[in-house]
Amino acid sequence: MIRVRIAPSPTGIPHIGNTRTALFNYLFAKHNKGKFIVRVEDTDQARIVAGAKEAIFEILEWLGLVWDEEYIQSERKNIYKEYIESLLKKSLAYKDEGAVRFKVPKDREISWTDMVGNKKISFKTDIIEDFVILKSDGFPTYHLANVVDDFLMNITHVIRGDEWISSAPKHILLYEAFGWKSPIFAHLPNILGPDKTKLSKRHGAKSVLDLKKEGYLKKALLNFMALLGWNPGEDKEIMDLQEMIKLFDFKDINTASPIFDIKKLEWINGEYIRRMDNSSLKSALSNFYKEDMEIISFMKRNRETIDLILDLAKTRMKKLIEFKNLIIYKIPQLSSDEKNIAKNLFEKFSSIANWNKDTILTSMKEVLQERNTKGNVLYKIITGYETGLPLPETLEILGKEKTLKRINETFK
After folding, report:
1. Cβ atoms of 69 and 153 closer than 8 Å
2. What is the dihedral of CA 79, 85, 90, 92, to 10 degrees?
3. Into which CATH architecture does domain 336-411 fall?
4. Which CB contacts under 8 angstroms, 24+ apart, belong to 347-351?
5. All structural domains of the chain with their residue ranges
6. Annotated active-site positions, please?
7. Which residue among 36, 145, 331, 362 has the highest number of C-beta atoms inside a 10 angstrom radius?
8. Within a 10 A sphere around the Cβ of 325, how many other Cβ atoms?
9. Rounded Cα–Cα distance for residues 393 and 211 (Å)
10. In the sheet that 93-96 helps form, which strands lie side by side, from edge to edge?
């Protein structure tokens, strides 16, 4: 049975690149009816960040990447000691100033065929120094604990970022020293920023939890992350998790580094919003704005027209966080010229006998032509913002009386 693991270190909140690796592990496991394991590698106690471990599990749980088994390395401290002792007894490791180092054999070539691109990767052992496997604080290093755990947990495939390629020879040497077979390695190309350097905070690299707070939907995030280095063919771009599981194949992983494109994420998120039925969107918005009394009040106040409003909002929203600025009204601060335009608009709207989007649009066009102004000025007068939902449709829903009252407040 195929068994894969993600092995995050709680030294910070995982950004989207780390979570993309978790997703690829999950998709590979589920496509092959295998097991997906989470192992928190917290042996570097000095660098642990408070709340990071909890965030790792919160991200996976919110995304629906359900794990089959869970391990915490610091709770397995005693297990590693016996394996270190065995290396010392075989003279494959030695003590050095309070630590234990693995003795790297010289004049060897270590190679493996990587599952990404099916390419052979080789290293000369002469360039690898003897490396620490047990620190002076009694905790094993990443290299030792990683190999021991992968063996004991029957990990068949190690799928991780390509920054770990240089560590793979050390791990293969440890497997050999213990007399164990190495798992199959797959090193995923790192995600790059728009300038083609490694993705970082200056590019807007964020955690899934940050993106969730900005109003990105989990289905959209999963979809976006899957496309960061994987292409199932047939120009497929919008896929749910089950479809991804069905289609996922390592032969479709690109060997080139993918570019993080926030505009692409916004487009995918907007697509998911537009495809949601109003009941689902209402639920998503209510959950997103559950502590925003202004939105809660708006939803209650507009129960009869909320579906009409949502139909309009879907056409303009890329993120849930944009909903508030689309529908909440604020009294604008107008210049004297803008106030005169507001008075003109009030007169035009007052004379409309049959209040509907067509008659509203006609009146708006007349004002724009007579006053030689732009549409964003009308938006500002009516909503307090310079952009928003389609005005004629919005004002038809709002009604003539409320619209006139709103405009009248601007030039009092």
Report:
1. yes
2. 80
3. Orthogonal Bundle (1.10)
4. 349/400, 349/403, 349/404, 349/407, 350/404
5. 3-72+191-266, 276-323, 336-411
6. 201
7. 145
8. 14
9. 31
10. 93-96, 99-102, 131-134
- The structure tokens listed for 28 are 């590979």
Read off the amino acid at residue 243: E
Handedness of CA 318, 324, 328, 332 (dihedral sign): negative
407, containing H or E segment: helix 400-408
| b/e sequence 146-166, b meaning 16+ C-beta within 10 Å | bbbbbbeeebbbbbbebebee
Beta-strand pair 69-72/35-40: parallel
Whether residue 304 is predicted with pLDDT greater than 80 in this model: the reply is yes
Q: Which residue has the higher pLDDT, 201 or 7?
A: 7
> Among candidates 315, 59, 321, which has minimal Cα distance to 215?
321
Are the C-beta atoms of residues 355 and 392 closer than 8 Å to each other? no
- What is the C-alpha separation between 188 and 274, in angstroms, rounded? 32
Q: How far apart are CA 343 and CA 412, in angstroms?
A: 10
Task: Single out the residue of 69, 144, 60 nearest to residue 102, CA to CA.
Answer: 144
Are 148 and 287 within 8 A, CB to CB? no
What Rg value do the Cα atoms of the chain yield, rounded?
29
Decide the pairing of beta strands 184-188 and 131-134: unpaired
CATH no., domain 3-72+191-266: 3.40.50.620
87 by Cβ neighbours in 10 Å (0-12 / 13-18 / 19+) ranks as buried
87-144 tens-digit pLDDT: 999 999 999 988 999 999 999 999 999 999 999 999 999 999 999 999 999 999 999 9
- Closest to 209 measured CA to CA, from 60, 336, 325: 60
Torsion of CA 346, 352, 357, 363, to 10 degrees: -50
H or E stretch covering 94: strand 93-96
**Neighbouring residues of 369: CB distance < 8 A, sequence distance ≥ 6:** none
